[in-house]
Specification:
Length: 97
């Protein structure tokens, strides 16, 4: 199966609040159709998106720590140990298997 763009890549995001509201069901329908087409079943697809998630978590590590501090008053170290490191370890584990 050839690589297919993710639903978000096929349908650019709305620009206004009204457009976001109006397009929610359209976007949901697009995501359901994308899933139904079988693109998410391919291991290569899943691995690529796990890699993208891994990169995003690493790139936004500081923002994640700040959000965890704001919401749960976790220090940066505690945030990394109890949240970020676990997510990254799970992603690494899934990429290996």
């Amino acid at each position: 199966m050839k690589d297919a763009p993710a639903p978000a890549d096929r349908y650019p995001g709305p620009r206004t609040k009204r457009q976001r509201t109006m397009t929610t069901s359209i976007r949901l329908d697009a995501m359901r159709a994308f899933y139904a087409e079988g693109h998410t079943r391919e291991p290569a697809f899943r691995k690529e998106y796990l890699r993208r998630l891994q990169e995003a978590v690493k790139a936004h590590e500081q923002e994640i720590a700040e959000a965890l501090y704001a919401d749960l008053h976790k220090s940066a170290e505690e945030s990394y140990i109890s949240e970020t490191a676990i997510v990254l370890a799970e992603i690494r584990d899934q990429l290996r298997h």
